Amino acid sequence: MRMSADLRDLFLYEVFLYYNPLFLVALMIWLWGVNLWVFAQSSVNYVKVFDLAQTHLSHREIWRCATWLTLIVPTSMTAYLYLYSHGEVSLAASQPV
Fold this sequence. Notes:
This protein has helices spanning about 5-40, 45-50, 60-85, 90-95. The chain has about 100 residues and is an all-alpha fold. The chain has one domain. It is a multi-pass membrane protein. Its main location: membrane. Keywords: Membrane, Transmembrane, Transmembrane helix.
């Protein structure tokens, strides 16, 4: 069974509304890691500049969190797309958005 063009456009717009903020959060975390990496490469003592505790996260740890988020969000979106397009609306609605 195929979706009509109007229903498909509405469906994709809904997916965009649900998952766009999560992609923006993932991008923000990646850029935060890049920012810390640039500080470390240019020998800026950002720990002292921003008065951080000695247990702050390094750019590698932030990139690790960003990697997991980047894997989880598209996987959830793919599951939502698959389940919703195959008529399993109740299962698609249980996706952790």
